[in-house]
Automatic annotation (TrEMBL):
Protein's cellular compartments: Cell membrane
Highest taxon of the lineage: Bacteria
Family: Belongs to the binding-protein-dependent transport system permease family. LivHM subfamily.
InterPro entries xref list: ABC_transp_permease, BCAA_transport_permease
Protein name: Branched-chain amino acid ABC transporter permease
Keywords, ordered alphabetically: Amino-acid transport, Cell membrane, Membrane, Transmembrane, Transmembrane helix, Transport
GO terms for biological process, alphabetical: amino acid transport
Amino acid sequence: MEILGISTALLGSQLLVGLINGSFYAILSLGLAIIFGLLNIINFSHGAQYMMGAFVAWIALTRFGINYWVSLIAAPLIVGALGVLIERLMLRRLYKLDHLYGLLLTFGLALIFEGVFRDQFGISGESYEVPELLSGGVNLGFMFLPIYRGWVIVASLTVCFGTWYMIERTKLGAYLRAGTENSQMVQALGINVPLLITFTYGYGVALAAFAGVLAAPIFQVNPLMGSNLIIVVFAVVVIGGMGSIMGSILTGLGLGLIEGLTRVVYSEASSVVVFVIMVIVLLVRPAGLFGKS
């Protein structure tokens, strides 16, 4: 069967690939949106932290025999703890300064992290086996869907919408939002605002590491895997609206699907379609699709 001269099998497979990519865009841009929206820090080291999550899982498996399921929890905790140290020792000093200082600091950290891992592991890339429980695939009729890729979509969406619910619908989320808008008033109520800010940055970093563990069995684990993705993720955040939680999730998924569809219609444009959309959105709505002016 064909639609506009395109076979449904090809269309379906590329849209599914786009949805998988969109899941990574969503969870990574969500971490960026949380950090910027609540802390006003442009975290340019987010891609490096995503890479570090993948490497922690790979090192845990190859050197210590720790399986994927343990790494899925341990890697975000380890990289998130590093994020807590960064916030405590460095970023805390920059909150009252211009955004540019935070961007430059995190960009420098990204270069340091990538350089250390490149020196230790090279850039050829390391493979990470799909966990046995998620091996194999399912025949959908128009394509063969690897079970692991389906798991990536489910896990990413669960974490994304769970995070949105926590920030927008719980008391903890209310404290976080209030603490960033009027920290003195919230502290007067007995809430430890600096601790909340530290938790927020650590959680945003942990989201990047979680995405890295999900990505390890799909993409080769290498020190440049974050830098190859982070520019697209920043474009997603800008299109959705800087600091918009739901905007980041929906825009990430939507742009992944658009990218997959573009590969079918005009493959040469698939690598730039996100940036074309970003330019159009910035011209029409500078605050982004879901952002506030």
